[in-house]
Design goal:
Alpha-Beta Plaits; elongated; 4-stranded antiparallel β-sheet; alpha+beta
């Protein structure tokens, strides 16, 4: 009880002893910008003969451009996919693409740009003859651009 009385006695306020306290200003707000993300990319190029350039121009004028490639694999590990891509590029001296498919979460390795499905199948057959263990699961894919 004594404690309660002492507590209530210190809680009283009067108008002549009341002081106003000012708080320090809040610190300034600093905006942080996220770091820039940069990606290194490499592009393969192919020199086309005049006859091929003429046929490509004719197809582009019609609208949709269709090409065929041979897909030699699809991998989860980006380093392994890059190794497969490099080996194929060195063996055949052709464009080899490493496309990441977000829906499948796989790196798809494809080689060559062929005008016809038959040309792509002929190249696949050559790959199987030269390196049967490496490309036994390769297949032809159609690209529309």
């Amino acid at each position: 009880m004594l404690f309660f009385g002492a507590f209530c006695a210190g809680c009283g306020s009067s108008t002549d002893t009341q002081e106003t306290q000012t708080l320090p200003p809040p610190p300034p707000i600093v905006k942080q910008t996220p770091p820039k993300m940069e990606f290194e990319t490499k592009t393969d190029t192919v020199a086309m003969e005049k006859s091929q350039r003429d046929s490509v121009g004719a197809r582009q004028s019609r609208g949709v451009q269709v090409k065929y490639m041979v897909q030699i694999g699809a991998f989860k590990d980006p380093h392994y996919a890059s190794d497969v891509q490099s080996i194929a590029r060195e063996r055949y001296h052709m464009p080899a693409l490493n496309d990441y498919n977000t829906g499948l979460a796989l790196y798809q390795i494809r080689i060559g740009f062929f005008e016809t499905r038959e040309d792509a199948y002929a190249f696949r057959k050559r790959m199987l003859q030269e390196h049967p263990g490496d490309y036994k699961d390769a297949w032809v894919v159609q690209l529309k651009r």
